[in-house]
Amino acid sequence: MKLTRMLPASCLLLSLMIPQALLAQKPTGSESPSYYNIGGVLSNNESESHFGTVIAHLNFDQQYVPRGTTYYDKTIRIDKNPIKTALNVCKHLISRRVYAVVVSHEPTGDLSPAAVSYTSGFYQIPVIGISSREAAFSDKNIHVSFLRTVPPYYHQADVWLEILSHFGYTKVIIIHSSDTDGRAVLGRFQTTSQTNYDDIDVRATVESIVEFEPKLDSFSSYLMDMKTAQSRVYLLYASQEDAYVIFRDAAIHNMTEYGHIWIVTEQALSANNTPTGIIGLKLNNAENETDHIKDAIYILASAIKEMTVNETITEAPKDCDDSGAIWESGKRLFGYLKTRNIRGETGQVAFDDNGDRMYAEYDVINVHENHSFEKVGSFHYDSEKRKMRLKINDSSITWPGNTGKKPEGIMIPTHLKVLTIEEKPFVYARKLLDDEIDCADDEVVCPHFNITNGNEQEYCCKGYCIDLLKALAQRINFTYDLALSPDGQFGHYQLKNHTTGIGTTVKKEWNGLIGELVAERADLIVAPLTINPERAEFIEFSKPFKYQGITILEKKPSRSSTLVSFLQPFSNTLWILVMVSVHVVALVLYLLDRFSPFGRFKLSSNDGTEEDALNLSSAIWFAWGVLLNSGIGEGTPRSFSARVLGMVWAGFAMIIVASYTANLAAFLVLERPKTKLTGINDARLRNTMENLTCATVKGSSVDMYFRRQVELSNMYRTMEANNYDTAEQAIQDVKDGKLMAFIWDSSRLEYEASKDCELVTAGELFGRSGYGVGLQKASPWTDAVTLAILDFHESGFMESLDKEWIFHGNVQQCEQFEKTPNTLGLKNMAGVFILVGAGIVGGIGLIIIEVVYKKHQIKKQKKMEIARHAADKWRGTIEKRKTLRASLAMQRQYNVGLNSVSKSVSSQNAEKTRYPILPPLPRTPERAWPKDKEYIVNRKNNSAGKPPPRYMPTYATDVSHLIV
């Protein structure tokens, strides 16, 4: 609230006549003091007089001073000698138990207020500065109990940011002295820019920082470097003397003419050669010491009043001899002071954590002709919104060059530094040979500066992006120097702590191509640079020149054909059932034909023989012959029931053979290798226990994609240890079979798959994005590059680049190969040939066994023949003996019966007639066997109905068992 009006002179006189005995009174018990001595270290008599007057009036203001409480002033004159000032503080202020000290600023030096702060701060006595604006007083490690009603110089950076936002300037050059205040201005600007301006499009970025030593003699060398920068907005923090030198040299180099914008602080604005068009700041009430004294005293009274309500205030220190005494109430009083927020004579008075004045109000000053200062705006406190607000009258501003037209703030350079990276087919890089002077016509020189060892090597680049860069340079009219990425990476960030003048902040530090662009060491990135949110936060992207996604590359699985691939049409179970069915049907056929009453019947033949019935071996032969579609020459079923079963079996065999033939074509001719993986959602990729290696490139956009996706975190932890430095290494390992799956940009992987038909991409695209040209934030080339790329898409130029560099016609070749039906080769049908070979070998083995067995049988037959001959010979001998005995017996009968000769003769004739003697049979081996069929038949025919002859020669029975 506003301070009360000045009290009458009688009240002032009454307050001065208070007995000095009251000053010696001390509070008793645990109550707070009833009086408070307020010290003042002031610069002149007027300030001292005003200090006493304000305190006298304060005692009658019940809003700040309750009944029973009185304030007294104790003042000393500030001395330019800081040691003397410190001694005076001890002798005349601390010895009188001051509860706080208000300190002014000595016009010829800055050290005396610091001496007061050191001395009082040692005892935790609060010190309120009313004119000290140096950044050092913000350090609470040194000035532990110092706060001030004036803002420090570096707070002007907050107003700078508001002015830049008002005019739309997003790229600046900061020029500051190398002292504490200069560095504090830079730190405040950068921190506030990142903290308070979330919209990157309006956030001011520092293109270049120029730091100079105070007491300049010349600034020309710095100005020459500034001319090469893009920004033409200069923020200057310098003393009055240094600003004079800077303005002088800037005018010599024509850097104060139209197109250049200078925004300066209060000290620089006071230089006597400030150019026309400069915009500066001026603190309201900066030199009005009396108003600041009044605000400081009332703030102190407000804090003491609140503190007495909440707690007891102990006595202040009484001298400087007690080095170990720390006034705890003073420490807490300083905390109450920092929480004040009142409306005073100098505006809204409040403090931050460092004890610095907030809500300080400034006038925006514009230098017109004849070095006249005009107020064109203000930075003031908005009580409704409770925040600071900038208001500028643009029409009243005179810009450098004495014109009313606002400059653009940047100068668009026509020679750009372009970075790229080797990534086939977008960029091919080859090292320039020693005997080569220059690159080929279709190549561009692209040196590589190795940041590891500091060596530079010459390379030649060509490819998709190089042709795009040439077209962009021709279309939007710029020249360029091309170079490869220093560390060979696209760029990823790391979080690091950075300490500034006001605290510690966490920042993202980029490397690779992105790091070069963020550090403004490059203007463009023309490479297969994926557009993603992390990168877009720090750099600009053009519209995509190629749309793509992420996919998986793996080696195409070889055909599954093996030596038994011809068995693939049927499962093992079906093959077993077919084999069993053959033999079961053969057995049933044999049984049906065996037990059928019509199984055997006579055939009308000349020889009159009967055909044999179907035996088991013939039935098996018949079943296999029907199944394998071979001709059946013999051994067919004869019964009707067996023939019905044979017809059914023939139908079954036809179906089985037809099914086998159809499936054989599907398995061997139309077989296409399938990918092992179905895509990113394949369970084997998500399962860390699966023995499947997958990887990507470290720090790439794909790597960032996996970091963002929570559902892929388990997979990312597994593949993180396998990630590669370059895509070339990973692709080669996929070809060699060392890596099962490589996850990368679809454009590159499709190119590799089109070049090598043994490689294949798995699954559908995911993480769809595009490749864009990278530019610096707020680059003037952004719109021009984007419009050119859109035009290239419409004109078909990008499509022609795709055909020339990515596909090469190889995709069509691979597609033609995929569409062409496969022909069966030895690999597919090797098992069949092996089966035939096994049959041949088996047949040869069987014939050998048969030959050996036959030889054995022949030997046995020869032995049997020898036995038969021996038996025949023995039989003949026996027959001869029998015949001889018979003859002798007949002879004896003849001799005994001579008398009955006639009877005997007639009897003999009768015997001969009845039993004629047969001629002896030929004794051949074929007829020697008694069971010979032909012999038995003939014997039957010859002796049918007749008894056997009495003395007929007979053969012996089989005696083969007697032969050893």
From TrEMBL:
One of its GO terms (cellular component) is postsynaptic membrane. Pfam families: ANF_receptor, CaM_bdg_C0, Lig_chan, Lig_chan-Glu_bd. Disulfide bonds join 757-814. The record marks 677 as: Crucial to convey clamshell closure to channel opening. Keywords: Calcium, Cell membrane, Disulfide bond, Glycoprotein, Ion channel, Ion transport, Ligand-gated ion channel, Magnesium, Membrane, Phosphoprotein, Postsynaptic cell membrane, Receptor, Signal, Synapse, Transmembrane, Transmembrane helix, Transport. The keyword Hydrolase does not apply. Residues 448-519 form the Ionotropic glutamate receptor L-glutamate and glycine-binding domain. One of its GO terms (biological process) is ionotropic glutamate receptor signaling pathway. The chain crosses the membrane at residues 574-592, 644-670, 829-853. The record marks 707 as: Interaction with the cone snail toxin Con-ikot-ikot. Residues 1-24 form the signal peptide. GO terms for molecular function: ligand-gated monoatomic ion channel activity; signaling receptor activity. Residues 441-808 form the Ionotropic glutamate receptor C-terminal domain. CDD domains: PBP1_iGluR_NMDA_NR1 (cd06379), PBP2_iGluR_NMDA_Nr1 (cd13719). InterPro entries: ANF_lig-bd_rcpt, CaM-bd_C0_NMDA_rcpt_NR1, Glu/Gly-bd, Iono_Glu_rcpt_met, Ionotropic_Glu_rcpt, Iontro_rcpt_C, NMDA1-like_ligand-bd, NMDA1-like_N. It is a multi-pass membrane protein. Belongs to the glutamate-gated ion channel (TC 1.A.10.1) family. Forms a heteromeric NMDA channel with Nmdar2. NMDA receptor subtype of glutamate-gated ion channels with high calcium permeability and voltage-dependent sensitivity to magnesium. Mediated by glycine. This protein plays a key role in synaptic plasticity, synaptogenesis, excitotoxicity, memory acquisition and learning. It mediates neuronal functions in glutamate neurotransmission. Is involved in the cell surface targeting of NMDA receptors. Plays a role in associative learning and in long-term memory consolidation. This is Glutamate [NMDA] receptor subunit 1. It comes from Anopheles culicifacies.
